[in-house]
């Protein structure tokens, strides 16, 4: 028997015409924490979804504990001792935590589900790994960190010996991430194998035994942690050195552009309701909003751009109240938006790059005259923007659905920053975007600021918030827990405020 | 109007309770048919058609075999057959379920009409002494107790069965493994799939169970509620079932309560007719009730949601805060 519990060799996988994985290779030893790193779109998640049987492989072989497995399905993978914690949790919100945990292999007593036996079993794991979980609550009432622990217990209950975690820390505060790492170390002590997908190098260097790198769907290398450095890993990941530090200019803030005063905003989730928030953004400054996903950021942005009701308070754009106004009217009074989900809010995926680039001002000169659209103006605009923002491929007649995440986002950014509006809202502008595009998008924001735009930046990436913002406000459960100039901020003090702690 | 006021005790009396339940029962079966698939997030708009085919099959087979049990079973099988056509179209070939459902409804109307013509050489209505109805349950001891007699005596077997089935489905959905999986599939299929549940298998099972239930709904209508087959005899009861299912959020007990409202409107309407209310108005009653019920249930849902989402009201539980 080989020393590996998992061997994946010569893996090929295409989705339609897109080759997601070519010559994929991955091995894992029993009891190790093995990180799989790469840029977004490098094929990490796809590789692991293949191992978990979520898609069939096109070519290659997967050996689990030395057994060749073709035609893997999640069920067979589970039977082979593989468990996966997905980036988006696979939990049914309307069911209780306990129901979610036992789903698929419920203990029975007569015709009924034996909930007592199930509870006993689950409690064993909760105690063994010091996880703090409320079994009777519905999943849509628990926190993200807790939901993640539920997912880990789910895999353990199914007898997982190999646990795959797909970017588990993306949704956690630094403190919650530390808690997760402790759990992972305990699992390792029990000889479980952990596959940790990430693109955060400091975390990877912190907990891994070995690290495998993928780039553009291809296997690059596997290294021992002791023999490598973050710098070397970066090079392996992107094939060149990158410097993400843009040189920030501290500007003197000008007039107030956006003024939010004591706003109250409804939300489906208790922790996402905004309860009495006030802040302002001035001309020529970037104000960063830091917070764990789901603490009201999306609601705040939606309210400012007119997609969500404001129950109380006022939002002023250049002195004019825009609360509860229609998005179109707000945009006309000087608003640009890079929405948090480019696919559903930022772009029409079926329409061309050219049309998307002109979409917001389609009803205005030069794109239209009377009720007629002027195709030449749209094409002219597309030519300029595709070049200026380096959108690839440069065929502006392609539908935006054929673009990679980074290039699709560049289309949104190109459109929004070129309108020279007074206010720019950038919500998660670099989420799911490769490093090259991140660099260009951040530079666009910086440029907009230099030209006097007031920028409100909402991001889950602390590094992004700290490096771009002039001022940072931290929100927790819909309230501002702290505000500071960016040069006083670091992961620790922001992390603490994000957890609802107080400033000093 | 004065006639109604004078006779209010004749309209609203003990016998109205059974009359309500009696006219609700076919809708209850239809609503349970719709609830079974709704739990898997499939809107069974074809309930009407499945039920109509069931009605026809039940009468036809009962007539030919002289056995009501075989008639009912045949109706259930015919319902399952129709439902499996819908299932293959929707689950395997990914067709829009509402389009298939409406297709099935139109097909059922035409096919039953055709077969009525071809097999029984008649149009409109088919009734014959050789059709064996579903027997009624008679308790001799109740004969002397007027209230009990009016309330519980001489129910058709399928009327008792409706009550049993409401409870069985309630148990099935919320206490059994299959029910848990069904709900998981309906609410977040991807999560169910990664938990190792065969999602398409569960969906097929739900569709077929729904077909069996829809067939039974039809059999009850033509052999229990009446003893004949009439063209389009379901007369939108399938749609009312779907409406009641929405009202009850696919929860069997709440759904059945919604059906009772329809039954109530129907039987009060029938009584009012005797006192000079125009028959056209009476015929409108169930539909008006449908619209009102749906409007109210949507409004209540909207208001509850809004209240739940509001930031102005204090949160119910003390939020966890830490420093």
Q: Beta-strand level of the residues of chain B, as a percent range?
A: under 5%
CATH architecture identity of the largest domain in chain A:
3-Layer(aba) Sandwich
Fraction in beta strands of chain A: 25-35%
* Beta strand count of chain A: 24
- Give the topology string of chain B: H per helix, E per strand: HHHHHHEEHEHHHHEHHH
Give a description of the structure.
The complex is a heterodimer of chains A (504) and B (323). Chain A is an alpha/beta fold. Helices cover 32% and strands 26% of the residues of chain A. Chain A has a six-stranded mixed beta sheet with strand order 6-9-10-3-11-12, with helices on both faces. In chain A, strand 11 (210-215) and strand 12 (218-224) form a beta hairpin. In chain A, helix 14 (405-417) runs parallel beside helix 15 (435-450). Chain A starts with a strand and ends in a 6-residue tail after the last helix. Chain B has 323 residues and is mostly helical. Chain B has one domain (2-309): ABC transporter involved in vitamin B12 uptake, BtuC (Orthogonal Bundle). Chain B is 73% helix and 2% strand. Chain B contains 14 helices and four strands. Chain B has helices spanning 2-6, 8-11, 14-38, 47-65, 68-92, 97-120, 146-152, 157-175, 177-187, 189-194, 199-225, 237-247, 252-273, 279-309; strands at 125-126, 136-137, 155-156, 229-230. In chain B, the strands form two sheets. Chain B has a two-stranded antiparallel ribbon. Chain B is globular. Mean pLDDT of chain B is 91; it is low at 316-323. The chains are: A alpha/beta (504), B mainly alpha (323). Chain A binds chain B through residues 52, 54, 74-75, 78, 84, 86, 89-95, 99-100, 102-106, 108, 111-113, 154, 158, 264-268, 270-271, 273-275, 311-312, 477-478, 499-502, and chain B through 171, 175-177, 180-181, 183-184, 187-188, 190-198, 305-306, 308-312, 315, 319, 321-323.
